[in-house]
Structure formats: structure tokens, C-alpha cells
Amino acid sequence: MFNDNRAALIAETLQRRIAKLPAGEKLPGVRELSREFQASAATVSAALSELSALGLVRAEPGRGTFVAERAQQTEPDFTWQSQALGPARVDADRASRLGGYGTPDHLPLSWGYLAPELLPNEDLHRIASRAAKHARSWAMTPAVGSAELRRVFAAEYRVDPSDVMIVSGGQQALVFALRTLAEPGDTVITESPSYPGAILAAQSAGLTIASVPADQDGILVERLADELERTRARVIYLQPSYANPTGAVLSPERRVKVLELAERHGAFVLEDDWARYLNIDGKAPGSLISADQHGHVVTVLTLSKSASPGLRLGAIVARGPAGERMRASRTADELCVAPMMQEIAHDLLTSSVWPKHQKRLRLELAERRDALVSALRSFAPSLRIQSVPKGGIHLWVRMPQGSSTSATVAAAYAEGILVGDGRHFFVDEPPAPFLRFSFGAATPAQISRGVSQLARIIEGQAGRLARDSSEDRVDFHGNTARQ
Ligand SMILES: Cc1ncc(COP(=O)(O)O)c(C=O)c1O
Question: Which atom of ligand 1 is nearest to the CA of 174?
């Protein structure tokens, strides 16, 4: 979640005040402002620097800070830029909900990463300080990544280390893979609902997106076959294991069928294996790439979820010419992922810390998932759980028909609760109102409290809706008139 920037808020308040002051007027000193805003001197100084960078104030060393001349405050006119840039590729509204959504005060009932207490942070601190002392951490690695780390991921997927490329996180892996596997204007098929970041990645690669419905067993393969015929898509984006947002696992029968279809249509399957280390009940399903013989599957992995979002470390596994092209064009994008991060990831994955962390994580996630399921069942029975996930961190619920997910999400946000609006997980219109919950970011007690508060918000909305509609009258032509 985004760290609420206190300095920015102070700068905003001062900016409004400055607008009413004459040029040359002296502002109160830092100490006085610190008292007024109950903020540290460093925070107030940061706010003043921001205003100075905007040309709104002028600092005179030893004398204080003064309102700048008005001439320096004329608003820039950027309107020409929109005309020069043309239509935006990436849907800004969808993008605004990824990564930096909410404040630290929000209770995260929907969030894509684990709470700090579930991450191996203390081990990471130790591993990182050791890694900082290696000369290797301060030298470049090849663009495709360090040989040692590539070997670790190669062993996970039983591929040759030369088929692995290290990248900075799953999102970058998706954009990079889509850009290499398809040309702008080509179609990528996604299961629906799907991860909004993949939709954004496809948009930023200039691809047309076609969606195919999915259920608890993954993408509907007959519909996929029709869509491949219709669109001649070159890439199918799937999350075969514990999909975000539904928790679905692609069934063994459908895995076979997806691979057959990819072969028949000469298409790639981009397998987003983000939840590889997040199985809760039983063994994790195998990866799709491990069942693929002829290089149709390109797999993307991230450590952001299971190890640390701040590592920004992921990998792409691709065989044949697709892998060669990706590795060749890698240097056009980035010369290498920060070697220190690669070193830390390698040391973490190969130490005894990793299996222990996974074991603890499984137990903690099970407890939090069960807390979420039981809170929803007892406090919010009108929200229908679509299926209880056996891994991952997300749970998908359906609201009663006619509910407004955007109104619910906005009301929850205003009351300090983050919950995911199902609309953002569909490329097109959602077939029904859905909400996404996550169980990796809040404690069982917070989950229970958050769900009961959310249930009250939803009940309040339903009550208001019922009252409003009883006040509506339908006229002879079927038009609704408010009384
Ligand atoms: C399904 C899925 N894939 C990929 C990512 C990207 O993860 P990263 O933080 O490694 O970029 C996310 C993050 O939310 C995700 O949910």
C-alpha cells in the first residue's frame, strides 16, 4: 500500500494558503509550522522544498521562506501533449488500483501481497547484509541473469538453465513476454476474470484482448477453441495454479486440452505461475510447462508474493526461438536486474530458511483463509463464496444481483477497508457483481472485524436501495419516475 505522504499533504495545505498571500510575504518558520502540523522539522522542510521546486516559494538562507513572485507561478499549459500523444494505451483507472492503492491505515481485505509478518524478513535482513559484502553484488551479471540463480529456477521447472531469464518481478515479465511473443495489433486471449495487471500489460504491448470465461476448473476449453478460431490469437494468458482472483486450478483434463489447442493453432500459452510457492492444502499442482514438449508454454514466476515484494525478482522460462529472441532482446530493455537482488534471491532459495518459511506460510495462510471463509459465512451470508481456494491468497465472492460493486468498494474505502471491485478483473462487462477478497495481508482478527464492518456497510446500502425503489413509480410506458 502506498505510504501516505505527509509532506505532500502539508505542501498542499500551504499551497492553498500561499495563493491568498502577496508575493514577498514571509512564511512562518519551520519550527512554527512543525507545531501547527504536528509534523517533524524534516517533514515540514520536505514540504517547503516541494513548494520551492514548484516555484511557489523562495528560500533565503538565514532569513526564511518567502512567497515567490507571481510571474513564476503561472500554470503550465500541457494541453498540446494529449494531442501529440494520441489515445492512451493503458487504462489509467485499472492501473491506479495496482501496487499503490490505499493507505497504511486501510484494513486490507483485498491486497496482492503478504503481510510483513508472513514474509521471511529477518532472514532477508541477514542474507542481504551478507550479500552486500560480496564483490559479485556490485558487479554486473549477464543481461539474462546470474548463472547460479538461473540454475535454481531451472531445477524448479526441470528445464535447461539457458532457458531461464531473470527479470525484475512478475509484472515486468508479463509485459516483456507479451511484447516478444506478439506484435502490436495481435490478439491475446485471457481467461475471464483475470489479473488486471495482465490486462494492462497486454494494453501496453498494444495487443487486442479477447476474453474467454473460466470456472473453478480454469478456462472453458470449448470456448477457448472457438475464440482461437475466431481471433487467430497467438498468445493465451493463463494462471493454471490458484488464479487471481478466483483461486481456480486448471483441471488435468483441461490442461491436456489447452496444450492440444496451442499445438493445433500454433499459439503460445503464457503461464503466470505467480503462486508457485503458495499452496495451502496438499501439493501444489504441477506447472503447465512441465507437460509441454514443443515450447508452446512460456512460464513467468515471481518471488514478490512468497518472499518479498521489494525484491522485485522474477523469471521467464522460454524454450526454442521464442526464448532465444527474448534473451537477445533483453539488453534492449535492461542490462541486468540489480545483482544484489539476484544474490539475495539465490541465497534465500538455496538456504534452509526457504523450506521452513514455506511450511510456516502454509499454516498461516490456511488459518487466515479459514478465518475469511468463516467471517463471510457468519457476517455476510448474502455474499456467495465461489469456491474455497486450496492455495494462493485470493477468494472470489458474488454479490446479490443488482448490487453495485463500485458503490460498495467506495463506501468500504471511505470507512478504511480495502476490498476489490470485481469489475476490474474483467476485460468487458462483468456477468454479475463480484468482489475480490484476499487473506494474505490482514490477521485473522482483522479479517473478522473487517468483514463484519463491511457486512454492515452492505446491509445499509441494501436498505437504502430498497427504500429508494419503493419510492419509485413506473408509468404506463415503463419509465421510472422518482416521487
Ligand atoms: C497474477 C499475478 N501475476 C503477476 C503479478 C505481478 O507481481 P510482481 O509484484 O512480481 O510484479 C501479480 C501481482 O499482483 C499477480 O497477482
Answer: 4
Atom index in ligand 1 nearest the CA of residue 272 equals 3
CATH number assigned to the domain comprising residue 460:
3.90.1150.10
Measure 173 CA to ligand 1 centroid, in angstroms.
9
Side chain identity at residue 317, one-letter code = V
Q: Give how many domains the chain has, as a whole number.
A: 3
410 lies in the same domain as 375: yes
Question: Is residue 78 a part of any domain in this protein?
Answer: no
Assess whether the C-beta atom of 197 lies below 6 angstroms from ligand 1. Answer: yes
pLDDT, one tens digit per residue, over 174-189 is 999 999 999 999 999 9
Residues 409 and 395 in one domain: yes
Is residue 169 in contact with ligand 1, taking CB distance under 6 Å?
yes
| pLDDT given at position 477 | 43
Tally of helices (H runs) and strands (E runs) in the chain: 16, 18
Ligand 1 centre to CA of 170 (Å) is: 5
The H or E element containing residue 362 is: helix 353-379
> Residue with the nearest Cα to atom 3 of ligand 1?
274
Domain that holds residue 14: 6-73
Atom of ligand 1 lying closest to residue 244 CA: 1
- Tell me the pLDDT tens digit for each residue of 424-483: 999 999 999 999 999 999 999 999 999 999 999 998 887 776 776 666 544 444 444 443
How many Å lie between the centroid of ligand 1 and the Cα of residue 336? Answer: 20
**CA distance readout (Å), 456 to 379, 461, 475:** 9, 9, 34
CA gap 133, 130 in Å, rounded: 6
One-letter amino acid for residue 59 of the chain: A
Checking if the pLDDT of 74 tops 80, the result is no
The domain spanning residue 141 has which CATH number? 3.40.640.10
